[in-house]
């Protein structure tokens, strides 16, 4: 299931990259479309440099690698993104499924920064994003301390207990909107947050995502 979905999001994002050019804004603070495209290449094709995405002490290594990619020219970088990852972990099951999230979120980073409305999506894409939330929502919410968190899928009422704890906050929305919210795009995501005041305040105060 992940193969056509991650490929479709990748292709749509690359088309939008070319439509908008290298200087368009994104929801990634401080990044243009050129920066985002370079990030995607480094993430998939330069694993040593990509370590700085997760390890702050190595961030300068990642930044140098991104600058090196950007020096190749915007269209060349977008072509490298479109070509997909080389043989390796990103072509295999778990990480390929993660790429559905990665490319959905970054596609929306560009779309919504350009003022475009949220997409309705498909049941297949929503199901894939929901399954990714089952596996990884706890990571995005790990800084909540003793506060619990429950995700509720709009339309179906399905629930994910992302964190056990009391008091608990409830986040309700479509899977893609919840994925965006947990990736730190709070203001751009159509998510309803409810719960005891102290739980909501705790959520508002923490940094989400990786």
What does this structure look like?
This protein is an alpha+beta fold. The protein has helices at residues 2-20, 33-45, 47-50, 59-70, 74-82, 93-113, 123-140, 175-182, 197-205, and strands at 148-153, 159-163, 168-173, 192-194. Strands 2-1-3-4 form a four-stranded mixed beta sheet. The model has no long low-confidence stretch (mean pLDDT 91).
Distance between the termini: 25 Å
The strand order across the widest sheet is: 2-1-3-4
Note the main sheet: 4 strands, mixed
Determine Rg (CA atoms, Å). Answer: 17 Å
Mean pLDDT: 91
Beta-strand portion reads 5-15%
Q: How would you classify the helix and strand content by structural class?
A: alpha+beta
Number of strands: 4
Poorly predicted sequence stretches spanning 5 or more consecutive residues: none
Fraction of residues in helix = 40-55%
Figure out the total of helices. Answer: 9
Shape type: globular
What order do the helices and strands follow? HHHHHHHEEEHEH
List keywords for this structure.
single chain; globular; 210 residues; 4-stranded mixed β-sheet; alpha+beta
List the helices and strands and how they pair.
Blueprint: H1 2-20, H2 33-45, H3 47-50, H4 59-70, H5 74-82, H6 93-113, H7 123-140, E1 148-153, E2 159-163, E3 168-173, H8 175-182, E4 192-194, H9 197-205
Parallel strand pairs: 1-3
Antiparallel strand pairs: 1-2, 3-4
Helix pairs in contact: 1-5, 1-6, 2-4, 2-5, 6-7, 7-8
């Amino acid at each position: 299931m992940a193969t056509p979905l991650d490929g479709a999001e990748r292709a749509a994002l690359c088309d939008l990259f070319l439509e908008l050019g290298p200087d368009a804004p994104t929801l990634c603070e401080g990044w243009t479309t050129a920066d985002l495209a370079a990030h995607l290449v480094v993430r998939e094709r330069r694993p040593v440099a990509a370590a700085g995405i997760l390890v702050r002490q190595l961030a300068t290594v990642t930044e140098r690698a991104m600058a090196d990619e950007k020096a190749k020219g915007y269209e060349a970088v977008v072509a490298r993104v479109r070509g997909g990852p080389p043989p390796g972990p990103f072509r295999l099951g778990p990480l390929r499924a993660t790429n559905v999230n990665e490319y959905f979120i970054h596609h929306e980073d560009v779309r919504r920064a350009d003022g475009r409305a949220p997409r309705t999506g498909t049941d297949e894409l929503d199901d894939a994003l929901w399954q990714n939330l089952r596996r990884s929502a706890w990571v995005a919410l790990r800084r909540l301390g003793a506060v619990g968190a429950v995700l509720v899928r709009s339309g179906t009422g399905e629930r994910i207990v992302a964190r056990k704890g009391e008091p608990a906050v409830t986040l309700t929305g479509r899977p893609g909107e919840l994925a965006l919210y947990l990736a730190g795009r709070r203001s751009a995501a159509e998510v309803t947050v409810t719960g005891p005041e102290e739980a909501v305040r705790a959520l508002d105060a923490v940094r989400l995502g990786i």
